[in-house]
Amino acid sequence: MSEIIKVVRSVRDLRKATSKWRQRGQSIALVPTMGALHAGHLALVKLARKKADKTVVSIFVNPTQFGPNEDLSRYPRDEAGDLEKLAAADADLVWAPGVEEMYPEGFSAGVRAGSAAKELEGEFRPFHFDGVATVCTKLFNQVTPDVAIFGEKDYQQLAVLRQVVRDLNMPLKIIGAPTKRDSDGLALSSRNAYLSEAEREIAPALNAVIAALAEDVANGADVVSGIANAKRKLAAAGFTKIDYVEVRDAETLAVPPDHDGRDLRVLAAAWLGKTRLIDNVAV
Ligand code: AMP
Predict the structure, then answer these.
(1) 55 CB within 6 A, ligand 1
(2) pTM here?
(3) Helix or strand (DSSP H, E) at 248
(4) 44 CA distance to ligand 1 centroid (A)?
(5) What is 190-282's CATH number, 3.90.950.10, 1.20.58.760, 3.20.20.80, 3.30.1300.10?
(6) Active site residues
């Protein structure tokens, strides 16, 4: 028999559950997700359970972070499967509001993402991070977590949210978790389900190419020619469009000045047909 997990769909029911925990002095970790859960998400749940007494996982495919021509309507959804996985992972509560609960009639305020959102994804998905910043602020206000766990898979999202929490003095700690990968290096992603068999064969090249670039940069290679070379390798592997390959300051995501000894991160986004993949690695 499959295990069961408590699911709440209204802010009212959510508050009932969390206030009981608060009265008992228990701390809360939040793991925000858009569902279609895989081992990467479950690793975040595992980390959350270590960081607080109670773990809330939110499942909400947030319409405001999708652009008009993006994949909102076909984004994979499998709530029954997600609930089974979360029960097995020993999460305490699932927060799964409908769109009307999150954005009721008349909703119009929002949070503007800061400088970390400007480039990279921000150039190709102009309103994406404002949508992310707004929905995560709502999730933080709804769940009132002590800590919220996000994956390094979405490295810029992590940087943007750290900035929002810091700049707006939100009373929680953001924790980043390492990217879970398939054995061939491909970062796990709900969007990998879109890949054809042939595309799935090509996909691990994204990680291989940026990992090689990171190593070259660590060994002192020229960044500009390294990036050009990486883009050529991605095209040769079969990527149909390369949005960006960049080497950035690991904290601010700004273009790093030469030789200043700060931590760097290689970030990339590229398309295989209709599927856009992103990945990043430390230098
Ligand atoms: P998503 O459902 O794709 O919006 O992701 C929800 C959370 O899971 C985000 O914090 C992601 O960064 C994180 N995540 C997604 N894929 C992975 C992965 N392969 N490894 C670790 N975390 C991930």
Answers:
(1) no
(2) 0.97
(3) strand 241-249
(4) 8
(5) 3.30.1300.10
(6) 41
Q: If you search the block for the tokens 């029911």, which residue do you land on? A: 13
Q: How confident is the model at residue 2 (pLDDT cuts 50, 70, 90)?
A: low
Pocket lining: 279 vs ligand 1, CB cutoff 6 Å: no
Distance (Å) from CA 154 to ligand 1 centroid: 7
Q: Write down the pLDDT at residue 261.
A: 80
In the beta sheet, which residues pair with residue 148? 30, 174
User: In the chain, pLDDT over 90 holds for what percent of residues?
Assistant: 96
Average confidence score pLDDT of the chain: 96
Q: Extract the tokens encoding 20.
A: 């009981």
Query: Where is average pLDDT lowest: 18-22, 122-126, 228-232, 254-258?
Result: 254-258
List Cβ neighbours of 60 (8 Å cut-off, separation of 6 or more).
32, 33, 34, 35, 95, 96, 97, 102, 135, 139
179 CB under 6 A from ligand 1? yes
User: What are 16's two structure tokens?
Assistant: 């009932």
Mutation probe of ligand 1 site: the residue of 153, 175, 186, 206 with most atoms within 8 A of C-beta: 153
* Structure token digits, residue 116: 């970390």
Specify the fold of 7-177: Rossmann fold (3.40.50)
